[in-house]
Amino acid sequence: MTAQSGLQTISPTRREALKWLLTFSIITTATGVVAPILAYLIPSSKKSDIYGGPISVGKVEDFPLGTGKVVSVNDKPVIVVNTKVGGIKVFSAVCTHLGCIVTWNQAKNVIHSPCHDGLFNPVTGNVVAGPPPRPLPLYELAVKDGQVYIGKPLGKIYGT
Ligand code: FES
Q1: Residues in contact with ligand 1 (CB, 6 Å cut-off)
Q2: From the CA of 66, how far away is ligand 1's center (Å)?
């Protein structure tokens, strides 16, 4: 081996390969940095509609007059109530106080949060008693062909 062998110049093919590798590294690094920033700045339109459109919560006869029932929709609890005054309504079943799941209180005809005795009006969702600071959010509702469908929540759901 000669003294010059350590000073060998890089062949054009090898130089091209290194340029290509460097360009590839810059592009992948830039993509890895820019893509999350763009995803944050440009939110997906699906994020605003967590239920992805109208979803059936059951048949009308599943919700007899004077009752309330908690139903899970895409792992989100909602309470479907049917009152003489308000008819069928669907509210978020997540209490606006600290997020407990509400139930139906048949004796009092109210929506009840068992954690701290919060009570909600089953027609309006307004707070009747207890510590909840806001009403239960109502959902868009449609009844079609005997099925009860819900759309988007019309208010902020606790924890979202
Ligand atoms: S969580 Fe519902 S009253 Fe406290």
Answers
A1: 95, 97-98, 100, 113, 115-116, 118, 130-132
A2: 23
